[in-house]
Amino acid sequence: MDVRTICLGILSRGDATGYEIKKLFDEDGYQHFVEASFGSIYPALSRLTQEGMVSVRAESQEKRPDRKVYSITDTGRRAFLNSLMKPLPEDRHRSPFVFAMLFSHLLPHPRVVEMLDTYIGQSETKLAQLMEQKPQPQTEGDRFVLGYGRAVYIAIVNYLRHYRAELKGDAAEAAE
Amino acid sequence: MDVRTICLGILSRGDATGYEIKKLFDEDGYQHFVEASFGSIYPALSRLTQEGMVSVRAESQEKRPDRKVYSITDTGRRAFLNSLMKPLPEDRHRSPFVFAMLFSHLLPHPRVVEMLDTYIGQSETKLAQLMEQKPQPQTEGDRFVLGYGRAVYIAIVNYLRHYRAELKGDAAEAAE
DNA sequence: CCGATCTATATCGGACCAATATAGACGGAC
DNA sequence: GTCCGTCTATATTGGTCCGATATAGATCGG
To answer: For the whole model, what pTM was predicted?
Structure first.
């Protein structure tokens, strides 16, 4: 599942610029299980254009650089659906936070608390995004992914809050 | 949090070969939130050796290629702990399965069921690994990460099983 | 009116992964 | 008993991907 395929998928839901594709990952709470950087999105769109998977129209605006709006072609749509019929690559996940917590016993207590609070904040923000979503998801897929995201982030936030509360107790005991 | 830092962390818990480091990610149920490939582990270990962060001893075995056992040095240990004091990079996550499910309404029903069942199987395997763990984790960090992994995978498996059950109902209705 | 933030495209160096090559050991099938 | 698959173990390569950075006008709050 490379960035080219992901771009095709996004474009199959509607036209977009490279910038807008990136924004979908960051903001829209679209979901937090797929992302890509500009450094791979722009080259991907160029190559997809060469391959005839997408078409571009340059909307020249007054006193602004052109907006390059990409649309998926029939070829692209077929190629995308075809790639979904083949076995999917496995998830890749790297969480520096979780890894760092493996070594909490080697770190100063305030640093551990700081790491926890930072991560709790980030997770709560993502969860809030997923909760404030429009009540009626567009497609069945949207409904599934929204529910999935909520389930995962609720579990994460619950666990972290609980652990953080335990930690407070320990700190109080240690201070006595 | 690059692969070099991750290798340092692993080695701070005990000596290992490149092969063993990789195995920890795959098997040990060590945890499913950090991984790395051979293609990045071996170069990382070479460079760490050059930099004096780790040392190597080649255990030459009879009729086998040398086992290169890596040990972390004091310099490496200090550098690693120091990197944990700086702000941590954010999680990166890419789940082809979740992305593909966004388009379930465009796919044949059997394919959707197949994707779901495959992913449920994988998640159950990981959860089983996390549950059969030795009852007494080594460090506080181990305890935290084990609990975190269990919480996340329990939520995932629950949600997927529930969704899959719903789907069965739909399919039955559609067949009538 | 100044700095910050936003829209928008783009590139580069370095990091990273998947696939592949090599090679002897070991265990089970037949 | 020998063949096949799997396991230990190191290593490289091609290509993908990310983070940082550059550019530049718009817009907006203080």
So the answer is: 0.90
| A74 Cα to chain B: minimum distance (Å) | 14
Neighbours of A121 (CB within 10 A): 11
- Asked whether residue B175 carries a pLDDT value surpassing 70, the answer given is no
Q: In angstroms, rounded to a whole number, what is the distance separating the alpha carbons of residues B99 and B110?
A: 17
Give the model confidence (pLDDT) of B57-66 as tens digits: 887 666 566 7
Strand D close residues, chain A 98-117, CB < 7 angstroms:
none
Written as six digits, the tokens of B132 are: 């059969």
pLDDT in tens, B56-105: 988 766 656 678 999 999 999 999 999 999 999 999 999 999 999 999 99
Supply the pLDDT for residue A138.
82
| Whole-angstrom Cα Rg for chain B | 21
CA of A143 to nearest chain B CA: how many angstroms apart? 8
Inter-chain residue contact A85 with B107, CB threshold 8 Å: yes
**Å from the A142 CA to the D11 C1':** 44
The answer to whether the CB atoms of B145 and A94 lie below 8 A apart is no
Q: Per mean pLDDT, which range of A156-160, A170-174, B153-157 is the poorest?
A: A170-174
Which residues of B fall within a CB distance of 8 Å from A84? 100, 103, 106-107, 111
The angle subtended at Cα B15 by Cα B11 and Cα B19, nearest 5°, is 85
Please name the residue ranges forming H helices in A59-175. Answer: 74-85, 96-101, 109-131, 140-175
Confidence of residue A129 (pLDDT cuts 50, 70, 90): confident
